[in-house]
């Protein structure tokens, strides 16, 4: 149990200090406002955030401020001049969270239990400090909850037809548009993005396709039909509108998103979102064939100066052989690509450029929207959650963990998470809820 | 004409934020509906005792198929006009529920879960439930995360202390309610959620208090001990403690605030008397129910009891009347002008007159709300114009007064002003 604050008397001149964070309970993608009042005007103050993750690690962030002439600090308007983030950053205390000094290297923050909130203690300290917060007494402190799941959202494990997944249904009778949600090569059943999407009105099925029950028991990978089965389960659900289903894939998940979107006779998508992914893949294969492709190209691995694994060249150069990349010229639904220009794990940028060319040649590029973010890495996640530039990673089915470089600089990457998430939600809502014709939406309208 | 289609998803109904404190607003909106179309929004929730409370309102979507409770007007239902929080404060017990209910949160550590539904057309959910086309669930909390709740049973005191998160020391409030007794915690938990330690104190009708439950069996020393408990608390600033009370709790606020040795930083009285109607027995104010009181009771044509006259200053026991001229701290008095349970206007007049004569008008703030009743509580909560109130040996329907819309407006305004008053008095 992490001790958040210490209880000691302090001197009178600072007794009036008031800290409020509003709202104190919010969804993970909602902003809050941090307000400090009644401090001596012009005095240096530090805002601090402390979070104990589910796996017992402490994460912290801080911002250095100067109180204005009314003795207030408002993180939404005022500039941080030091600490773990700089500038006017209302949510800086969350997105710049890093493991405290002395923590195990290569940590990544991922919420496993989406039915409980992430709890963060926000404090204000006298003066400008960047470390040793645990030895100091704060002037005031507040506690906020950050939720992946809105009240009323239903979490339903999906195990029929050998699937391993979790369906999140929004509250109400429906029918709701549906979404098949795929993560990357690490496998596991990652629920938080689906829980958040359901909190925005989209019935979302998080699917484990690498470390699922079948694979764990037989040692064999699933084939492409697994995704079609998941699609059908979603389509046939009484509260899901079968004609309005999308797919969202990150990293390896984008490979199968595109494969289904282009080639599957079963999967009819209303729209698709690919984050940090690629169309490069053996067209006529499934997960196993994709893994084989990685294995064949293993010598293309590079290493950073800190010995972190750089995988981005594994699929390069972009093949010209049509059997080695999904023919996006055949897409009939809108596609949103999210690209981190500093992606060190996949050749996302090159793939996006090639897809654009293919679609321009085929004449369906009006369906394509590309969001490209400088200094942004591979793991583009929902906003206001910490950026992971590198972490200890174990691929599904692999014994060894290694330190993998994902890329990105924290401020730019965090801004990209915020901007892309908002645009992903707009894109999904417009295509899944709106109009009779699905459409690519011009970047400026997202 | 039914507009539901099998090729379109259900409309999107949202409440932002979905989890709020009870005194915070949430914005209810809907989109992807047919344009210029009638809809009904309905809110339902269960009290801690399991009773169903509900409200509904009629709206019309705009040309983009949207509506927004922050800007649009209800054209019928439980409230009318532009009322962003109308669905919450206009809730009433559903048909078939028990009579004489009043909504009071017992367990402050859990939220009210409010189901908000969108129905087709302008319907009355009681008569024709209609078809629910969309829904959203909102949680309304009486406690912020990190607020600590402590049951206090020491030195004879019976109460619950709420401490905000953080190191402190905090300004604090001593919080008292009326003769209904028990220990309502919800105002204190909200104060703590706004950064004030708050101690709600039981003084009658609680199993842990001495003596029969229908009489006040504690005196001056009890209330003084409660104040001292706060002063001596390591996380409370001894010179930044205020007292607040509703109804008889208002009398106790004024009385305790003028006890020798008690130096509050502010006083807040809501709809209560400056003295006690019951006869004084000892120097310590131990009061006993007396048949004398009943002379002042009156009844409306439904047989509901109106207590108002008992607290007319001229009907109060003269020796019990608080020496208001001795007050040395700011005093806020809140009046519901349709209060049928206490003579609030007359008591406010007396306070005002006394303080003016003593040259202390600058200490006095009076808030007065037409159409508001006796039970001025935290905002956006449903009101009860009358409810069952326990007076042994029988339960009686008691008329509190107030009408929903003005009472709701009063609660919202009074709460905001109370917090501002506390801010000024306790954090200066």
Automatic annotation (TrEMBL), chain A:
Transmembrane segments: none
A Pfam family assignment: BAAT_C
InterPro entries: AB_hydrolase_fold (IPR029058), Acyl-CoA_thioEstase_long-chain (IPR016662), BAAT_C (IPR014940), Thio_Ohase/aa_AcTrfase (IPR006862), Thio_Ohase/BAAT_N (IPR042490)
SUPFAM superfamilies in the record: alpha/beta-Hydrolases
Domain Acyl-CoA thioester hydrolase/bile acid-CoA amino acid N-acetyltransferase: 29-160
Active-site residues (renumbered): 251 (charge relay system), 343 (charge relay system), 378 (charge relay system)
GO biological process: acyl-CoA metabolic process; fatty acid metabolic process
GO molecular function, one term: fatty acyl-CoA hydrolase activity
Domain BAAT/Acyl-CoA thioester hydrolase C-terminal: 223-433
Protein family (similarity comment): Belongs to the C/M/P thioester hydrolase family.
Name this protein carries in UniProt: Acyl-CoA thioesterase 19
Species: Oryzias melastigma
